[in-house]
Design goal:
single chain; alpha+beta; two-stranded antiparallel ribbon; 32% helix
């Protein structure tokens, strides 16, 4: 782990801002390959299937049994009609399409969307690395870590991953960046616990104490990180290099299902023209959602 002087100074002065609103973290990804179909290898005969009838066509999803609270909540919302009439209010090509905000029903064109829900959150059920953000994955939206350190999911909002394909070289570079980010986050958290001492030693010009603390925090950071390092499984590498996805979200959001039919409809949605806040210019809605198995 590299901790330079700029980072150390930044730790002393940095103030973290909370970011509200349910979202999946967006990136400016450039697609270098044509979208590939989802390759299904799993047997979902024992899983609940849901069809989302959208204004552009039907999408069929299977809900994972290993995320029972998200599965049962989704089934409940389907059965009580919560999703009937909601818009795909946030669409980002080569990333994901997001829906499930009850406030989006019949929303005016200039209405800000993405903060609505059923009035409750769900505890995270992150079954990682078994379930990850491959193309076609169904995941729960949530508020950011700054205001939601437990990574609780929105009670109703979800997104379907489109993403893009990556070379193994790109994936290795991503692992390195994510590892550095993870270690920096650990280091910053540890440093904040010593904010008073840091300010005092800085005022006194006591560089010896500052450097000693820095070195001890680096060692502790490396020890903590070593217990849970960032890495991709062979299954992830295979998926991200063939069908694609959004690997930078892995382990941070609850993935609780996947598309088993209708990925062409997902692609139609992700390719529409969008405006302010990534909302489609022409509304795209879930006409109805129903359990089919």
């Amino acid at each position: 782990m590299k901790i330079n002087n700029k980072l150390w100074i930044g730790v002393i002065t940095l103030m973290f801002l909370a970011i509200g609103g349910y979202c999946a973290v967006a990136i400016n990804a450039q697609s270098t390959t044509k979208d590939a179909p989802v390759t299904m290898k799993n047997d979902f005969s024992a899983n609940t299937h849901v069809i989302l009838e959208t204004s552009l066509g039907n999408i069929e999803i299977a809900l994972y049994n290993e995320t029972p609270q998200h599965r049962d909540n989704f089934i409940k919302l389907v059965n009580n009609g919560t999703y009937n009439g909601v818009l795909f209010h946030r669409v980002i090509k080569d990333f994901m399409i997001q829906t499930g905000d009850p406030d989006s029903k019949n929303a005016l064109a200039d209405t800000f969307l993405g903060a609505g829900g059923p009035g409750y959150d769900l505890p995270a059920e992150i079954v990682y690395p078994k379930y990850f953000h491959k193309r076609g994955a169904l995941a729960a939206a949530r508020q950011g870590d700054e205001v939601n350190p437990e990574r609780k999911s929105s009670g109703s909002q979800f997104y379907i991953v489109t993403g893009r394909r990556f070379s193994e070289y790109q994936l290795n570079g991503m692992i390195e960046r994510l590892a550095n980010q993870a270690q920096s986050k650990i280091f910053n958290s540890l440093a904040q616990q010593h904010a008073g001492e840091i300010s005092q030693w800085q005022a006194l010009g006591d560089t010896v104490s500052l450097n000693n603390l820095r070195d001890s925090l680096i060692a502790k950071t490396q020890q903590i990180y070593a217990s849970s390092p960032v890495k991709f499984t062979p299954e992830q590498i295979a998926a991200y290099s063939t069908v694609g996805g959004t690997p930078h979200l892995d382990g941070q959001y609850t993935v609780f299902g996947e598309v088993i039919a209708g990925m062409d409809i997902v692609d139609r949605i992700q390719n529409v023209t969008t405006g302010t806040h990534d909302r489609p210019v022409d509304d795209i809605k879930i006409i109805s959602a129903r359990i089919v198995k």
